[in-house]
Design a protein that fits this description.
The protein has about 100 residues and is mainly alpha-helical. The chain has one domain. The protein is about 70% helix and about 0% strand. The longest helix is centred in the N-terminal third of the chain and has 21 residues.
Length: about 100
């Protein structure tokens, strides 16, 4: 899901002091968010998928131990891209905002 990847990438660029790259990732995130906001009420199953991704971003007990009940496929995704706690927190915040909208 592009909103997750761009959010995580923005965090990496911020941590590395790359303001220009962070701004580009933020723009991608904002565009992805706009698409999701438009599609969530129209696409059956999209809301459930966003919620499954969110479960993989709940705080982990340790770097290799996701929260109980976390969606296995999305946990694999976060591990594949080596998202750390800060990136997962940022993704979760984005998803929370989308789901509340």
């Amino acid at each position: 899901m592009n909103v997750a990847m761009s959010t995580a990438t923005e965090q990496v660029h911020i941590d590395n002091g790359s303001d220009e790259l962070a701004a580009a990732s933020r723009l991608t995130r904002d565009r992805s968010r706009a698409l999701l906001e438009a599609l969530l009420p129209r696409m059956g199953g999209l809301d459930a998928e966003v919620r499954r991704l969110r479960t993989a971003c709940e705080p982990w007990a340790a770097d290799d131990q996701p929260a109980a009940g976390a969606d296995e496929e999305w946990v694999k995704f976060t591990k594949k891209w080596r998202y750390g706690a800060e990136q997962r927190r940022a993704i979760k915040a984005e998803l929370d905002a989308l789901l509340e909208a």
